[in-house]
Amino acid sequence: MKTIAILGTLDSKGAEFKFIKDTIEKAGVNTFVIHVGVWDAPFTPDVSNEEVAQAVGVSVEELQVKKDRGYAMEVMAKGAAEIVKKLYGQGKFSSIISLGGTGGTSIACGAMRALPIGVPKLMVSTVASGDTRAYVGVSDLTMMHSVVDISGINSISASILSNAAHAIVGMTVHETVKLENEKPLIGATMFGVTTPCVTKAREYLENEGYEVLVFHATGIGGQAMESLVEAGFIKGVLDITTTEWCDELVGGILAAGPRRLEAAGKCGVPQVVSTGALDMVNFGPYESVPEKFKHRNLYKHNPSITLMRTTVEECRELGRIIAGKLNMTNSPTTLVLPLKGVSLIDVEGQSFYGPEEDQALFDALRENIDREKVTVVALEKDINNEEVALFMAKELIALMGR
């Protein structure tokens, strides 16, 4: 029989966790309880808070004496991640569930993120309806909004916690679907303005026997792809849309962090990289654009997203940054420059058409790239031209064949 781990602060939410535990066991599935609170639990867990704290060399008594909630949460979060990872590796449980407010959510989600993709993970949280990026990261954990605070069992909380318990039971007892004849995985990055290119390349690669995972280059998308590269899932990278670096440099809302473009090179995974959507920085609704940018070339992509054209100076710096990242590579790497435009709206007659800006980008890339490590190919087409898409797909196959 499979087992579901229940992780949480039993000292503050004992009744709620006991309700989850009883509901799961009534459904015929075993439970394995991990206590991550500082004080005593109202019922006996399978893993005590002392064991969790000791996983990072701290005692619960020290946390109780110190009376520093922030420090205690930091210790228990680190300990929970270590314990959960170890116990899952020992086969103690098949899935995990938790519930909590901001503190409990932080501790539990950190532990869940330590587990492999595919392990069922469910977090019932008071903050699930807000910005959950800090909690979910690039993992596949599921968040369920608690609606009411997790404070006692009442007519509303009982319904929600029952649904959560039965949801994790369903995820646990039903086997994950496995595709037959699994194919080599390729990761590709896409934006709306590079969709024709990525779609054509994907179709070609799929016809050649590869499976293509397309990641929306929204910050978390680039991070997700690179986390799968580092985990060994992805065997080739078609990084067509490197736009997340625009937001990282200028201050947009879809940045992927300063390590973007490092994973494939570091892990020896062949990569074909291009300059897709480096003509734009992303902001929210028009009124959310910072005042200092209101004079810039802005484009209302949709009611929720406003795009801002990158300048000559920004494009020059983007070229230097991207060249620097690719120069770190230990893998076969090709950089493709689409000289007639880097997005659907960076072509003649469109809103972000900018020959001068693009030239600054391409010049900076050419001047700073290490050609002993990176092959540079310039094509007199825009990025969404079919010839560009097919060239990049075929080039990636060739690099993978090495």
UniProtKB/TrEMBL annotation:
It comes from the Bacteria. It comes from Anaerosolibacter carboniphilus. It holds the Pfam family UPF0261_C. Residues 2-174, 183-400 form the UPF0261 domain. Gene3D superfamilies: Uncharacterised protein family UPF0261, NC domain, Uncharacterised protein family UPF0261, NN domain. This is Uncharacterized protein (UPF0261 family).
